[in-house]
Amino acid sequence: KHWNLTNTDKTYSKQAMQEAAELLKNGYTVAFPTETVYGLGADATNEAAVAGIFQAKGRPQDNPLIAHVANKQQLIQLVMELSPYVENLIDAFTPGPLTFVLPSNGTCARNVTAGLSTIAVRIPDHPVAQQLLTNCAIPIAAPSANISGKPSPTVAGHVWNDLNGRIAGILDGGPTGVGLESTVIDCTQEIPVILRPGGVTKEQLEEVVGTVMMDPALADQKEQPKSPGMKYTHYSPEVPLWLVDGSAQGIQEMINQEQKRGLRIGILASVKTARVLKADEIIPLGETMREIAANLYEALRTFKQGEVDIIICEAFPEEGIGQAVMNRLKKAASTHLTL
Ligand code: TXA
Ligand code: MG
């Protein structure tokens, strides 16, 4: 079922929200928009319902899910006692694109946490997600609503392409805002550790709690990531992506060289760089890093097999939201080159 909430009157959307909540409460999977990406939801307290998420996505069983709740009171119901800095983070960044890894109190089904003693919880900041979670009044487990390994969905059409026929419904709330997943922060130790960079930046977090660490696995591929999901192939476009650190001129020389070998080249770059490049297909991602983040997944899905042979994407500075953009690009890339 596809409920379009973007272009409809209030009574109809109210009915759609209630139908979706009923399906979730009855153990079905429903996709819904959040401010980051679309999520595929199921009742987090129902093991069979949660199993439906893993099945629909083809997700590895050892990769735990995020429990979504409407507010702080509901978050507290899923975890052991909060330390003061966690309260400060919750007050500063929720609702919003920040996911807290905390000691679980066992309320959610075992397969939500993939057997870990911790649980990831988030309070999304999107009117549809908020309304849905309020209507259900249960925690909703929700990974990104894509087939495992593909870029996360930022419009309902991406969910439809990936999961049509495998899930009970999609609430279409139009394009998501942030466009990249939430920041996952481990709050089980004295100093918080970022396991996945995302919508809330390290700089923003440090303003509230002082020192914040990065999981060493984010910088070094040899380290074992603390977030199970970070070890898998991710965000893969249909054609190989080369992430290239270099000037526009250097990138142009590379394009020319590859075209001489007969390859058709797709380009992902900032508006500024895109303006000066010549290639077979060019997608300008945006002027600012926030725009680039918002447009990245849609762009990765645009390049189709048979139309271009490789995608060359320029590397961006790893600061602010650029940290999350580069984290996703490195995972999407088959090679990372420095000119
Ligand atoms: O923005 C988002 O976070 C989106 C929207 C739908 O809310 N959701 C999302 O979920 O990105 P997913 O499943 O694609 O990513 C969840 C990440 C994975 O890397 C997973 O391994 C990690 O969170 N995670 C979940 N529970 C964890 C835990 N207990 N300890 C460490 N990492 C955990
Ligand atoms: Mg995902």
Automatic annotation (TrEMBL):
<dbReference type="GO" id="GO:0061710">
    <property type="term" value="F:L-threonylcarbamoyladenylate synthase"/>
</dbReference>
<comment type="function">
    <text>Required for the formation of a threonylcarbamoyl group on adenosine at position 37 (t(6)A37) in tRNAs that read codons beginning with adenine.</text>
</comment>
<keyword id="KW-0548">Nucleotidyltransferase</keyword>
<keyword id="KW-0963">Cytoplasm</keyword>
<keyword id="KW-0819">tRNA processing</keyword>
<dbReference type="Pfam" id="PF01300">
    <property type="entry name" value="Sua5_yciO_yrdC"/>
</dbReference>
<dbReference type="Pfam" id="PF03481">
    <property type="entry name" value="Sua5_C"/>
</dbReference>
<dbReference type="InterPro" id="IPR050156">
    <property type="entry name" value="TC-AMP_synthase_SUA5"/>
</dbReference>
<dbReference type="InterPro" id="IPR006070">
    <property type="entry name" value="Sua5-like_dom"/>
</dbReference>
<protein>
    <recommendedName>
        <fullName>Threonylcarbamoyl-AMP synthase</fullName>
        <ecNumber>2.7.7.87</ecNumber>
    </recommendedName>
</protein>
<keyword id="KW-0067">ATP-binding</keyword>
<keyword id="KW-0547">Nucleotide-binding</keyword>
<keyword id="KW-0808">Transferase</keyword>
<dbReference type="InterPro" id="IPR010923">
    <property type="entry name" value="T(6)A37_SUA5"/>
</dbReference>
<feature type="domain" description="YrdC-like">
    <location>
        <begin position="14"/>
        <end position="200"/>
    </location>
</feature>
<dbReference type="InterPro" id="IPR038385">
    <property type="entry name" value="Sua5/YwlC_C"/>
</dbReference>
<dbReference type="InterPro" id="IPR005145">
    <property type="entry name" value="Sua5_C"/>
</dbReference>
<dbReference type="InterPro" id="IPR017945">
    <property type="entry name" value="DHBP_synth_RibB-like_a/b_dom"/>
</dbReference>
<comment type="similarity">
    <text>Belongs to the SUA5 family.</text>
</comment>
